[in-house]
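Technical annex B. To support the medicinal chemistry partners, we prepared a structural model of the target in complex with guanosine-5'-monophosphate, based solely on the information shown next.
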Amino acid sequence: MNDCLFCKIIAGEIPSTKVYEDEFVYAFRDINPQAPVHVLVVPKAHIACADEISEENSAAVAKIFEAIPKIAKAEGLTNGYRIINCCGEDGGQTVFHLHFHLLGGKKLSESF
Ligand code: 5GP
Ligand code: ZN
């Protein structure tokens, strides 16, 4: 866990552009945005990927989905947005701390 990039960002050891924070959730701008708004929403507790969500840690995921509408509103995403999670190698995950991409600010393409 000490080697986890997003744990370091949450701890403030690596700088990020924070857009939202509460007791359970941290959200910051993606360093390589794929849309006018591209925010990563992560649990403060380390969960490696969606495949590791369980009865024990799923409350953090609920907190993320409670935070997303607040972030979307603050970012002006009044016309909708997309939430993406990449899980594991085949899912294209590159950072192994659970995160949800919140994308918007334009009409997004239908392909993935
Ligand atoms: P994944 O491919 O795992 O779903 O998404 C990882 C995301 O993290 C990518 O969109 C990538 O641009 C972003 N990312 C990687 N390193 C950093 C970083 O140091 N800071 C920020 N803000 N985003 C990062
Ligand atoms: Zn982590």
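Notes passed to the chemistry partners:
The longest helix spans residues 58-74.
The beta strands are 18-21, 25-29, 37-43, 82-84, 100-104.
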